[in-house]
Structures are given as C-alpha cells and as structure tokens.
Amino acid sequence: MVTFLAGGTGTPKLLPGAESVFDPADTTVVCNTGDDVEIAGHLVCPDLDTVLFERGGVLDRERWWGVEDDSTKTHDELRELSAAAGFEIGPRYLPDERQAEGRDLARWRRFSGVGEFMIIGDRDRAVHLFRTSLLDEGHTLTETTRLLADAFSLDVSLLPMSDDPVATIIHTPEGPMHFQEFWVAHGGEPAVEDVEFRGANGRENGSRNGGAAPTAAVRDALAEPVVIGPSNPVTSLGPLLALDGVPEALAETTVVAVSPFVGEKLFSGPAAKLMAAVGVEPSTAGVAESYPFADAFVIDDTDPTNLGRPTVTTDITIDDAEDSTRVARAVEEALELGQEAA
Fold first, then answer.
1. pLDDT at res. 11
2. Domain 2-341 falls in which CATH fold?
C-alpha cells in the first residue's frame, strides 16, 4: 500500500510511471482542496480533477488542466454576455455576506459567473455540475469524488483531503485574494506578504464541526507509506499539512518527498515566490525544511544539496511516461531507504 499526496501538477505527472512500480489497486491519492473555488454556483476542484482526468485518460496534457480537446462554448458565451452588459472580465467575488451562506464547501471562495476568469471547458463544466448536484443532494465531497472516480474508471483510490472547506488565501499589498485569483487571473504577479489557509485548525471557519479536519479515509491512507510528488510545499501541500493531526500522522509513517527544485532552480510555478513570502528558503533545502517528517528524498542528480537524510538522485525532469517511470523507481528506492532509517 502507498499513498501519494497531490497538489498542482507534480504528483499527477508522477502517477503514469508510478503505476508500473506500485500496484494501482493498492495506491491512494489524497488531493489538496485549498485551491477549490465556486464559480457560478458550481464547485471546481482543480487538484482533484487533474488526477481524475489524468487517471481517467482524458486530461489536457498541454495545459495539465481540463479535458483534452474540450470545447469552451459556454465559457466564451459567458464572457461575451458579460462584456456586452458592460462588465469587466475578471474575478468577481460574491458579497462578503454571501461567502458564508448556503453550501458549506463554498465558503470564502465564491465567485460570480459574470466575466468568468477561469477557462472551464464544456465537458469539464459537466463534472462540476455533477459534483455540485451530488453535494446539494447531501453527499460528502469524499462520496462525490468516489462516484466520479467510478465514472472515470480510475484504477487508484482518490480522496479529497477533507470534507470541510479550506481556502488558500494570498495576502498581497492590494489585499487578500484567493489563490486562483492570484495565480490564474493575475498570473502570480502580485507581491506576496503571507499565505493563509482559512478554515484549517478552526481559523475563521464556519464549518459544522468547528474546523476543517482530515476524513477517516485520509487518516487511514496516511498510516501507509507516503509519497509527496514534486509539488509546491506552500500552496499545494500546505493546506493539507495545516489540518489538525496530519503532520503528526506523517511523522509516524515513512515519507518520501520529491524536490521540485534543482538546488535553487525551480522547474515551474510560483513555489519560490510563495516560499520566500513565508520565510522559507526557495530551494531543495527549503523543501526539506518544509517537510521535517520526511524520512528520505528524491533529488536531481545535478543537485548539490546535502540534506542530512537518506537521498536518492536521478534526473527528476518529467516530460513523458519514461521520465515518470524513472522518477517513480527512484521513489521506490527512497521508500526502502526511509523505512530502514525509521
């Protein structure tokens, strides 16, 4: 049994090779939900959907987002209607009082469909409609995800990190903004003063249980050996690590992390900027600092960083299935080293 923690594109890129190293039937993927947003009343779960579409064989691998060859007629028409009605195209939060009304999973991240700022394809939108309808019927996000996984014939178990809402909020000189506004609408350009996981550990939460918590299924999955893909440790893994009990659970099992850096050079995404904003060195060493519970690491064979913990080196570039398999085999070796060191 093995559990992958997924946020962003790092772990989804690793999964194609992982299936030849780890039995999919014994593999669980736990996804970050801090990036989730409600747009026009539909809950969009980007990290869950990237794994859902990748494992389901329909992912747009050029963008690592959405469904391959999807049409965008509804999205395009929404933007045309918005412009014709005199609205600016871009993020439009619902009023503050509406952020805490209605569907519990939508708190702090509710956007209007007017001027829709995220490109949502038509088949992609059907997934969000299906998900939201099931939630409105009373299903949990975990149950809804299982039903979607069955519909896409997934060969791995797919879990959201929590059935409660957590919102990744980026604090900037212009004010707080949801991660999707920061990254999608503004291209990650605003200066970052701090990062908040709103709702985690009971902070500014409105969920029924007094604070977001990992589900029982997630707690069970974290009892198995854990692999953290080459992801952003702040916004891709941070929401999960902010949940009560998760760091402690990871300290009790074997954990291997793949660095998204080569020394101080980042492959892609906003990790360096976000890490610096929260006082962590943007480097492989900083990734290790972010994961004190990790027993072993996989780093690039040109990375000079000495982590003081068991390390396996390989070319960590993942551009295709062959690359993914190479890195997955290095992960397997690192798990063995980590188990020996534990």
1. 93
2. Rossmann fold (3.40.50)
Distance CA 319, CA 38 (A): 31
* Among 39, 38, 64, 62, CA closest to 49: 64
pTM of full prediction above 0.85 = yes
- For 209-247, write each residue's pLDDT tens digit: 457 999 999 999 999 999 999 989 999 999 999 999 999
